[in-house]
Amino acid sequence: MNLIEKYIEENKDRFLNELFGLIRIPSISSVSAHKPDMYRAAEYWKELLMSSGADHAEVFETDGNPVTYGEKIIDPAKPTVLVYGHMDVMPVEPLELWKSPPFEPEIRDGKIWARGADDDKGQSMMHAKAFELMVKTNTLPCNVKFMIEGEEEIGSPNLGKWCEENKEMLKADVILVSDTTMIRPDLPTITTGLRGLAYWQVEVTGPNRDLHSGMFGGAVANPINVLSKMIAQMTDDNGHITIPGFYDDVLEVSAEERALMAKTPFDLDSYKKALDIEEVAGEAGYSTIERTGIRPSFDVCGIWGGYTGEGAKTVLPSKAFAKISSRLVPNQNHEAIAEMFQSHFQSIAPKTVKVEVTPLHGGQAYACPIELPAYQAAEKAYLDVYGRRPLPNRSGGSIPIISTFEQVLGIKTILMGFGLEADAIHSPNENYPLEQFYKGIQTIPLFYKYFAEMSEV
Amino acid sequence: MNLIEKYIEENKDRFLNELFGLIRIPSISSVSAHKPDMYRAAEYWKELLMSSGADHAEVFETDGNPVTYGEKIIDPAKPTVLVYGHMDVMPVEPLELWKSPPFEPEIRDGKIWARGADDDKGQSMMHAKAFELMVKTNTLPCNVKFMIEGEEEIGSPNLGKWCEENKEMLKADVILVSDTTMIRPDLPTITTGLRGLAYWQVEVTGPNRDLHSGMFGGAVANPINVLSKMIAQMTDDNGHITIPGFYDDVLEVSAEERALMAKTPFDLDSYKKALDIEEVAGEAGYSTIERTGIRPSFDVCGIWGGYTGEGAKTVLPSKAFAKISSRLVPNQNHEAIAEMFQSHFQSIAPKTVKVEVTPLHGGQAYACPIELPAYQAAEKAYLDVYGRRPLPNRSGGSIPIISTFEQVLGIKTILMGFGLEADAIHSPNENYPLEQFYKGIQTIPLFYKYFAEMSEV
């Protein structure tokens, strides 16, 4: 048992308790009633960084939720790693589907079950504890900075400005983030691409009040019928998005890279079985991995209108609503796409209704070249712990702030994810295997070691 | 001031208080938590009929909500009028749109504001009080029976069977109902046609759990996207319903009758202004009055799925739901239509999802010939009170039980409605003008008078 393994073994229960304390704070950033919880989480992180060995830690105000910053500078001549994570989590509805309460972590079947167990409380906690390990065992080879924000799940609307204002303080050689997944527990992966995002709420108004569907049905446009037709028109029979100009800036991926992607282990039958679907769906001409990795998507995330209670109420409703999102790929500008959607959606509205479109959030896609020394340091760290060289992987998810870091701070990010697909992030019964939690804490110090060595060369 | 007017004037405040007592019982039949309120309403009606002059009144159990029956038999040789009404009301959501609490009646601007003020507590109360008036002034010329049910708003699922079982008790020459509207307060109308109804709930299931829209978006069918496309396909660009065979049994209305209908006063501009819509919508080739009067409709009454809370949650939901209804016209069989929809909707579902269709309720359309003596008695009664001969009118609404009465009891129904379109039935801020309430009580005894006279001939 080496030094790292020994330290983890001796402190594993305390690590878990520190994570549980963080999980118990219901820091849902999209619900304004949880604002006080965001401050509790920020203070929790401040204490956590100090007790883990930071020289200094501080809660910063922003125009939205607070950011916790902490650092340990061992030698200005050494390389600096900036760790990014987020303390906020997704909403937990539908509550009735959770097997244990979302904010009361429970260990079952070797996994931690709770909202945030993986995304991103579990994964960011690994960095705090790996940092503690290096400090307490006198093996820290780099300067370390932590930046933990509270608005990632709502698109990090204030972090870009905060980075801008604190550029000097945030100076670093690389940004290190664990907020992504590995393909399988025995197959480590480093995410080299992230999709961008655009997200809108639409409101369709027909008559100025709910109407009797008998007296008016057939003569007055029903906003739900109309909204359905409008949504239906947004994609064609080939799964293409019909917004004019939508694909203009999409970076087409070379045949060579697509051939490499095709080597990623993927079993369509188990994929379908795991989701209990008879057939997958998507853009014609692309594989499932390509559909989420290199192609944009169009999903209605929520829809509502009219009577949704028990039984049968006959009503021709006044309004219908939807939350609509599109995942974007490298080179698509989320602001341009947001405007494109807005004007296109307005343009296909019939004169029988009024349509309002409100952009809710967005972010750029991101790509990380595998030639970066920091990427190679991460590769070696995984190889040591997992016994296998990790595959580079393009994720379908979005961490909009990653491309902002590149634009504002000029620093590339390494996405060392330890999550698994089965972790059900954003869903009921989110979970995180204990093994991944501890292996993460074991892998991260090796990244620091190799990154420091490579930087000395 | 004649006898009728004098009695109303002397008792008008008490009449109103008796109505208010009924309104205060939140008898929402579609919500099972209100079951006890249905029994309270049934007992209230029993007391009301007894205190109004019935020989006998009784609350009958059914497989669903109770029915209150009461009668006064003055002479078996005289004609018998069977009054039908309903004590149940529609749900009240969205509550925040009500200017005063729905079950706390308030008088403002000469109107009663409350759920059920018109539909059908206000309109059925007129019959109880007109009955009292005739009893107390010794002018009752017919035998009278009352049948007040508690499931009209959910399609009267048990009343047909109850009628079947009580055929002898319910024997009558005509059924009299006030549950419809007049075109304008100065233009009385008698409803001669009612649309039928079919109503379904549909459930579309994609993946077996809510998914991260980044990890899966673009590769797995989104049930909201799919449901929208399915709903969109149900009507074409001409406003025709696309279910194969849907129009096969529709009774096409003659050019002559359509020419007559075209004479009904109707101002498209004020119609659009009242609803705050720029354009009406509907089946090509038919006027607005025809679209609701003689043509079937297809309306989504409710839709829901995914994240519908505050802010932006990115999710690819597991399920999407809709409540869908179709208003039917004479000669269409609601059961055949229900099956047609069910199999068609299933047939257009892609293999990427599972679709369940549950019929929730339905009823046949109805037509009343204007040659009936009872129709002519109603005409004369309105003429006396309103100074104008009423127009026959085809209503877009449904009272499914009316056609059941004809099938089971073999009795035609006269629909003497006193509601107005502005009464906002089924909507927030339902109301009923005091003037219509009192004029109704004044008109009904005249119907009995003329009907008795005509029956003697």
TrEMBL record, chains A, B:
Coiled-coil spans in chain: none
* InterPro entries recorded: Cyt/Met_Dipeptidase (IPR051458), Peptidase_M20 (IPR002933), Peptidase_M20_dimer (IPR011650)
Keywords per UniProt: Hydrolase, Metal-binding, Protease
Q: What molecular function terms (GO) are annotated for this protein?
A: metal ion binding; peptidase activity
According to its UniProt entry, the protein's GO biological process terms are:
proteolysis
- Cite the Peptidase M20 dimerisation domain residue spans from the record: 192-352
PANTHER family linked = BETA-ALA-HIS DIPEPTIDASE (PTHR43270), SUCCINYL-DIAMINOPIMELATE DESUCCINYLASE (PTHR43270:SF12)
Q: Which NCBIfam families match?
A: PRK07907.1, PRK08201.1, PRK09104.1
| Protein name per its UniProtKB record | M20/M25/M40 family peptidase
Q: Which organism is it from?
A: Sunxiuqinia dokdonensis
Q: What is the lineage of its organism?
A: Bacteria, Pseudomonadati, Bacteroidota, Bacteroidia, Marinilabiliales
